[in-house]
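Go through the following before class.
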Amino acid sequence: MTHTALLARHGEALDLFTDRVHQVGADQWDGPTPCTDWSVRDLVNHLIGEQLWVPPLVRDGATIESVGDTFDGDLLGPDPVASWDTAADAARRAFAEPGALDRTVHLSYGDTPCAHYCAQMVTDLVVHAWDLSRAIGADERLPAPLVDYAVREVSPYAADLAKSDLFAAPVEPPPGADAQTKLLSLLGRRP
């Protein structure tokens, strides 16, 4: 996939999650999600943290150790939607900088091409958009191009994700499952 196409998918995934964050009702922040032990607040906080990591890793060449616990704790503050919008914009701009996707980023599991990191972030945003949609009663249908992309991205290493405790173990999709159900099943969701 070209860098231009990857950035387009990343932008679409950010827009999808942004749409869902903007739909969270004032009384829904403490509600449960499909992510075990996470409330809506916890889920959005996690995604804000993920986006805030992008600029130091991509733009500054930082390491996990040098960033440390900067993005631990409550990142939502008094206005969770504005906090999300700010973090999403920062991630979008960092990945879109000229030459950014040609760089190497220093992740917890080793040095990784930035384009691969961006691809992983797309999948993370897509799957968590479904989690958030389910949690708040929003439309759970995910855009087909994002689903197809995420299935191709995550299929080769889905089993390893379960071992990392980042996602639940894959579940068997029902016979004749569509691409979205297959994606969610790969990542331990029961749609």
Observations:
- The mean pLDDT is 92.
- The domain at 3-144 is CATH 1.20.120.450 (Four Helix Bundle (Hemerythrin (Met), subunit A)).
- The radius of gyration is 16 Å.
- Strands lie at 104-107, 110-113.
